[in-house]
Amino acid sequence: MSPKKIPAVIAAAVLSATGCTSSAAQEPDPAATATAAAQVRPGPENCPVTLPAKGPSSIPEEALFGWERSHGDGTLAVGGLWPKGVIEAGPDFVEQDGSIRMKFGWWRGVPGKLGITGRRLDGPAPNLRADVPVGYEPTGFQASGLYFPTEGCWEVTGRLGTTSLVFVTYVTKTAASTG
Description:
Elements: H1 6-15, E1 20-21, H2 30-39, E2 71-72, E3 76-79, E4 86-89, E5 100-108, E6 115-120, E7 129-131, E8 140-148, E9 152-160, E10 163-173, H3 175-178
Parallel strand pairs: 4-10
Antiparallel strand pairs: 1-10, 2-3, 3-5, 5-8, 6-9, 7-8, 9-10
Helix pairs in contact: 1-2
């Protein structure tokens, strides 16, 4: 393999690593991730988005917000993914600091506290902020509010015990919200 192709292969490998994993899964190497981010040009066509699908049959449709546009399995799933994996945020979803706020429903098939993190894949940005409110049963539905500090290609990871779920989405503001 030529030296020029090696960064592209690393970028493809790092960016294609999405899905449910157990605790045996390894976190991406920060150096490889930095190389991958440097290789990806901004734009939804260059973002390896997670395409939504109908929720698993083990989760009742009425139990998960956004079940018809979800990702995951009966252990951990996220609902309310945007069509084609692209969030188009109108002015009602843009905070005063310019960050983009979106709500996502999660399904927890096992007890535990849901933790959510996120990072931008196609450029530098502060980490994603997540609001995971208390007051929900130990299993089942869990609401969340995610705050994307910038537009761009974002990898979001939900963690529940030894299980993690990753999805990738492209976040953009609509013309009405950028002016």
